[in-house]
Amino acid sequence: MRKRLRLRRDASMTLLLGASLGLLLYTQRDGAAPTTSLSPAPGLATQRPTPGPRKFQAPDVAPPAYEGDTPVPPTPPGPFDFGRYLRAKDQRRFALLINQPHKCRGPQPDLLIAVKSVAADFERRQAVRQTWGAEGRVQGALVRRVFLLGVPRAAGTDRGDSEGPSTPTHWRALLRAESLVYGDILLWAFDDTFFNLTLKEIHFLNWASAFCPEARFIFKGDADVFVHLGNLLEFLAPRDPTQDLLAGDVIVQARPIRARASKYYIPEAVYGLPAYPAYAGGGGFVLSRATLRRLAAACAQVELFPIDDVFLGMCLQRLRLTPEPHSAFRTFGISQPSAAPHLRTFDPCFYRELVLVHGLSASDIWLMWHLLHRPHGPVCAHPQPVAAVPFQWSS
Ligand SMILES: *[C@@H]1O[C@H](CO)[C@@H](O)[C@H](O)[C@H]1NC(C)=O
């Protein structure tokens, strides 16, 4: 009886949280209007290494045009103030406002999932919680999850001084409540902006080294990805967590963008070399326990760089570690989530061979997960599997 009461209370709490966040989202829609169209890569003319024989061919069409419902950290309008960035660069330690100190107590997780999120994106966090990011045992592996957040910039406040007086304090209260219910929120005291994602990166690496050092593997990704956890776990099963591993969608020889108008503009004074070190696209990558420790230490030695994936590449370079390309990680350039682009339908048969697909809405994530997890397996929209031969991990 009491249990049922508690359950009911939990349910109404969730409902309440969802409703209030939804309302907030709605009211802030026009004011905040965070930039949606993250162009895929910070570099021009990127080249992808071709990792071995391709086992399947993805359809080559334009990325899906989802309605602008992808809240990403807002970018400051107008040119990026590098002078200011460089002056503030030495401040790279911010307080942890909401912690999950017991996340990895007890049996050590086989996989810790860390998802970059922003406060307003409650809906996608819910989708991730209920689908690929669910905690517990998956194919025998113990999975734990955290979301990584900074302090939301107030909608409609004047840019410039970041501590705008109208920063809504209720965000903090809502996140605290969410943390109480789900136990998966990590909130740091820096502004949650696009150019502060590097801070998120280093704070997470430090947090995981301190609070979850025994997790065998760590997956870090965006909230708008779909991860085929079964495939990921299969990929990791033969790996040794005490050996170095960082695998994902590896981008090599990306050239810094020198056009001032670009969001990814990097002046030569900030980065003089003609190409960035190899890095894994930030949509999602996986690393071993050994690499986590070394990476956290290496990044502490690297000067902050405003593009987080490239920054991580710089840390890897310092370790002389080459990220491992894997063709099933599609952090961008995945086309329609369907093998029949003109139909605009989901084809789970396409997804079942991948580890990660980028650029999905909350409902896409939910739908794809449920299509893939039907009791008798996915119903394929086309009679032939995408791959002519059964997909196998080439490692
Ligand atoms: C990063 O966060 C800090 C602390 O909140 C803030 O002062 C700074 O302006 C932010 N930097 C960028 C580039 O948004």
Automatic annotation (TrEMBL):
InterPro entries: Glyco_trans_31. GO terms for cellular component: Golgi membrane. It is found in: Golgi apparatus membrane. It comes from the Eukaryota. Its EC number is 2.4.1.-. Residues 1-32 form the signal peptide. One of its GO terms (molecular function) is UDP-glycosyltransferase activity. Residues 32-74 are annotated as: Disordered. It is a single-pass type II membrane protein. Pfam families: Galactosyl_T. It is an enzyme of class 2 (transferase). GO terms for biological process: poly-N-acetyllactosamine biosynthetic process; protein O-linked glycosylation. Keywords: Glycosyltransferase, Golgi apparatus, Membrane, Signal, Signal-anchor, Transferase, Transmembrane, Transmembrane helix. Belongs to the glycosyltransferase 31 family. This is Hexosyltransferase. The gene is B3gnt9.
